[in-house]
Amino acid sequence: MKKLLMMFLAAVLAGCSFGPAVKNTPVTYDLGAPRTDDIAGGKIINVSLLVHNVMAPFWLDTPAIIYRFKQDAGRQQSYADSRWVASPAALLTQRLRDRFTQASTGGVIGVADGVRADYILRVELEDFAQVFDRADASRGVIMARASLVDATRRVLVAQKNFTFEHAAATPNAQGGVQALTEASDGLIDAIITWTAANIATVGR
To answer: Minimal CA–CA distance to 54: which of 136, 116, 129, 110?
Structure first.
């Protein structure tokens, strides 16, 4: 009887020791609610524009919130308990189209719409990360390249590299998300202004 009791206790303890671990569900973030503030200059684009999905390197094609330390910039890390609801490229694509729609009278379309447009905009994401200058100080850094193509003539109208940074209020995932959201809005507004200026130049 004593032997059976010991075997039972051993089985219970084994179940406790080797049973499946309980994992916390990661906190998910997006870039916040769509912006409704007016574009500077109002409706500044009067042609139809095809906005491609934002492209990104494979290491950014993930919902992970990437961070790195300035002193070891080649080593990328990600938060274990926090992530984006989608990849940064997907989040930027939606926000970019929303803002261009607010700035345009000619219409903004996507590739899936199967409609011809006057101009084509491509944005390639090169960096989207929280960079720690010190353990208690970080910033959101976004680097991207935009290319504007005249769809009728099939020629490159303009191309430009953009870099936007914003200081994080706190040295954690929440601070990184806030900083990258602010930097994203700055990037998008700059791309809209740049696109409008180049379309206006071609139209003259």
So the answer is: 110
pLDDT in tens, 109-148: 988 887 889 999 999 999 999 999 999 999 999 999 999 9
Burial of 63 (0-12, 13-18, 19+ CB in 10 A): middle
Structure tokens at 83: 């992530």
Residue 199 has pLDDT above 90, yes or no: yes
**Residues 109, 115 contacting (CB under 8 angstroms):** yes
Domain 2-203 belongs to what architecture?
A: 3-Layer(aba) Sandwich (3.40)
Distance CA 54, CA 63 (A): 15
CA 164 to chain centroid, in Å, comes to: 13
108-136 as b/e, with b when 16 or more CB fall inside 10 Å?
bbeeeeeeebbbbbbbbbebbbbbbeeee
What pTM, to 2 d.p., does this model score?
0.84
